């Protein structure tokens, strides 16, 4: 079977890691195609072990799938090696990892600039994780980035770093009054990383082309989500890459004609981390309920997630933009015990009704949700494995999401565990 894209339909943290892990034993390759260690996937195995993955594809926990970090990812080598060592200590085989030589590196000056610029923005800050992702992508686009393959050539590494720091140190020292980055110390540090990463660096494009030619299944795993896409999200409160389906082709180096299925993951409600507009955000007891029961704290940052009701305008936008074939709705169990479960079915902006995403940032910022209220349920649904085992009101809620999104719901998550799902339609034949 050819390529499958798995992505988030909201602002991230939808549970993509769980779905990747669910599919991991039935695919041959799991490829991370965008983002950096600003992303976090939490996976809970059948024996109750919890893994927080940041750069490693979630397929790392599969016993057999090859795991690939594509050219579209920005890599902090210290973080990646720490994650490799942590997994190895817990008995996870990491020898199946391959990293594109064209993936760009996060350097010390990227992290330094990310932190200081965000601080100086004050109330206008984007809400980055401060891990250097944005500056690394900025240098990539400016054609002054340093790639993983440059670690294999000390002369090239030093030359590129000297060129980059000629500008970056001026900014750090003269504009922000911060200490300049030392070239030699950085080269020494990164060449040490090179020795350990060398066995993993590969021409991953050819590897994936050959796999597709053999009819093997390639799962393309996005980080962040649709509404954080650089081009199609709530700019400027977005990530610095393209986590949408189109970005999968660019970030992994595979042709769009190879993609036969796009799986989008959405929570049964909505969350967001960081700044930016969020029409359905709740500031009352319902919001606290969602945060507490849903354990809504960032995998990477530990920050409290902003919580709100399900936004069908956002979800429908994501389904149409990505060409979604299957929708996975996670954390339906979090809504248990609420007497009413509203769904945002449109926006009101300056007295006018919108059923689709408004064109401008200003309009979206002022959007007021138009709600449709459905009756809640009190029954424990964590043991449900078929649609018939869900309470009638829970089934109605899922059916309404499916109707509003215009895409079939294939899986509903009823708990955090790998097996805690209700299967409507198989994701793989």
UniProtKB/TrEMBL annotation:
Pfam families: Adenylsucc_synt (PF00709). IMP binds at residues 13-16, 38-41, 129, 143, 224, 239, 303. Mg(2+) binds at residues 13, 40. Keywords: Cytoplasm, GTP-binding, Ligase, Magnesium, Metal-binding, Nucleotide-binding, Purine biosynthesis. Its EC number is 6.3.4.4. One of its GO terms (biological process) is 'de novo' AMP biosynthetic process. Pathway: Purine metabolism; AMP biosynthesis via de novo pathway; AMP from IMP: step 1/2. The active site is at 13 (proton acceptor), 41 (proton donor), 140. It comes from the Bacteria. It is found in: Cytoplasm. Its cofactor is Mg(2+). SUPFAM superfamilies: P-loop containing nucleoside triphosphate hydrolases. It catalyses: IMP + L-aspartate + GTP = N(6)-(1,2-dicarboxyethyl)-AMP + GDP + phosphate + 2 H(+). Binds 1 Mg(2+) ion per subunit. InterPro entries: Adenylosuccin_syn_GTP-bd (IPR018220), Adenylosuccin_syn_Lys_AS (IPR033128), Adenylosuccinate_synth_dom1 (IPR042109), Adenylosuccinate_synth_dom2 (IPR042110), Adenylosuccinate_synth_dom3 (IPR042111), Adenylosuccinate_synthetase (IPR001114), P-loop_NTPase (IPR027417). Substrate binds at residues 299-305. It is an enzyme of class 6 (ligase). GO terms for cellular component: cytoplasm. Belongs to the adenylosuccinate synthetase family. Homodimer. Plays an important role in the de novo pathway of purine nucleotide biosynthesis. Catalyzes the first committed step in the biosynthesis of AMP from IMP. This is Adenylosuccinate synthetase.
């Amino acid at each position: 079977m050819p390529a499958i894209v798995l992505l988030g339909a909201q602002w991230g943290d939808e549970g993509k890691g769980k779905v990747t892990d669910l599919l991991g034993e039935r695919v041959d390759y799991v490829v991370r195609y965008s983002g950096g260690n600003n992303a976090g996937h939490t996976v809970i195995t059948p024996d109750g072990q919890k893994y927080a993955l940041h750069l490693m594809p979630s397929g790392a926990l599969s016993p057999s799938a090859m795991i690939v970090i594509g050219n579209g990812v920005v890599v902090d080598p210290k973080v990646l090696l720490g994650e490799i060592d942590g997994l190895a200590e817990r008995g996870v085989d990491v020898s199946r990892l391959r990293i594109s030589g064209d993936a760009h590196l996060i350097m010390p000056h990227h992290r330094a600039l990310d932190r200081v610029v965000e601080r100086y923005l004050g109330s206008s800050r984007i809400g980055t994780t401060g891990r250097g992702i944005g500056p690394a992508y900025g240098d990539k686009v400016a054609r002054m980035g340093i790639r993983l393959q440059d670690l294999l050539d000390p002369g090239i590494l030093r030359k590129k770093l000297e060129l980059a720091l000629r500008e970056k140190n001026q900014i750090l020292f003269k504009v922000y009054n911060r200490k300049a980055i030392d070239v030699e110390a950085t080269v020494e540090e990164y060449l040490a990383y090179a020795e350990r990463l060398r066995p993993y660096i590969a021409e991953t494009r050819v590897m994936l082309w050959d796999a597709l030619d053999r009819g093997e299944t390639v799962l393309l795993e996005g980080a962040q989500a649709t509404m954080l896409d650089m081009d199609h999200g709530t700019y400027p409160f977005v990530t610095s890459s393209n986590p949408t389906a189109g970005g999968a082709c660019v970030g992994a180096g595979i042709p769009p004609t190879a993609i036969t299925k796009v799986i989008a993951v959405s929570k049964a409600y909505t969350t967001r981390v960081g700044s930016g507009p969020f029409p359905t955000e709740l500031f009352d007891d319902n919001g606290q309920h969602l945060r507490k029961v849903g354990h809504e704290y960032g995998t990477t940052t530990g920050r409290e997630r902003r919580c709100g009701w399900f936004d069908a305008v956002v979800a429908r936008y994501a389904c149409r933009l990505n060409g979604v074939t299957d929708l996975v709705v996670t954390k339906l169990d979090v809504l248990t015990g609420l007497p009413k479960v509203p769904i945002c079915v449109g926006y009101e902006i300056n007295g006018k009704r919108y059923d689709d995403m408004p064109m401008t940032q200003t309009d979206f910022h002022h959007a007021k949700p138009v709600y449709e209220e459905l009756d809640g349920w009190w029954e424990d649904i964590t043991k449900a494995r078929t649609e018939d085992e869900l309470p009638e009101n829970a089934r109605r809620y899922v059916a309404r999401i499916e109707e509003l999104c215009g895409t079939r719901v294939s899986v509903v998550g009823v708990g955090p565990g790998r097996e805690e799902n209700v299967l409507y339609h198989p994701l793989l034949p």
